[in-house]
Amino acid sequence: MNEQKLKQVRRLRRKRHVRRQIRGTAERPRLSVFRSSKHIYAQLIDDLNGRTLAAASTNAPDLRKELGYGGNVKAAQAVGKRLAEIAKERGITKAAFDRGYYRYHGRIKALADAARAEGLQF
C-alpha cells in the first residue's frame, strides 16, 4: 500500500471514530469543521432534520475583508467567534464539537476556543 493510500485510510478511520458518537439535534447541534489550506469553514448541523442551522467561514465577505488570508490561526479564531455570535442570535447555546478527521490542534483548537469564549458550550 503506497503512502498516499495509507494516509487516506487512516483519515477515514479517524473520521468514523470521531463521528460515531456525535449526533446533532435542534437543541444541541453538531459543530462541524472543515479546513483547507486557504480557508476554514464551520457549521452547526441538526442531523435529525438534516438542516444547517448556522454557518461561518473565511469565505464570507465580511470576514474576507477583515482578514485577507484565511488559512491561519487568527482566521480560525474569527470564524469561531462569528459562528458563536450567529448561534446566540438564533438561540443556540450548546453544541457537540465535530473535528472530523483533523487533530485537535492549531486552527481547529483556535476555532473551538474562540467559540467557547463567546459563550457556546461543548
Protein model, in words:
With about 120 residues, this protein is an alpha+beta fold. The protein has a single domain (about 5-115), classed as Nucleotidyltransferase, domain 5 (2-Layer Sandwich). Helix content is about 45%, strand content about 20%. The chain has a four-stranded mixed β-sheet with strand order 3-2-1-4. Strand 2 (about 40-45) and strand 3 form a beta hairpin. Helix 3 (about 75-90) packs parallel to helix 4 (about 105-115). The chain is globular. About 35% of the residues are buried.
Question: Keywords for this structure?
Answer:
122 residues, alpha+beta, 4-stranded mixed β-sheet, 43% helix
Architecture blueprint of SSEs:
Layout (H helix, E strand, L loop, with lengths): L2 H17 L10 E6 L4 E7 L4 E7 L3 H7 L5 H17 L6 E3 L8 H11 L5
Parallel strand pairs: 1-4
Antiparallel strand pairs: 1-2, 2-3
Helix pairs in contact: 3-4
**Biggest sheet architecture:** 4 strands, mixed
CATH architecture: 2-Layer Sandwich
C-alpha termini separation: 38 Å
**CATH class assignment:** Alpha Beta
> What would the principal axes of the Cα set say about the shape?
globular
How do the strands line up in the largest sheet?
3-2-1-4
Strand content: 15-25%
Summed over residues and divided by their number, the pLDDT gives a mean of 92
Number of helices: 4
Helix-strand category: alpha+beta
Please state the CA-atom Rg, rounded to the nearest Å: 15 Å
- Structural domain tally: 1
Q: What are the low-pLDDT stretches, counting only 5+ consecutive residues below 50?
A: none
**Percentage of residues in helical conformation:** 40-55%
CATH topology: Nucleotidyltransferase, domain 5
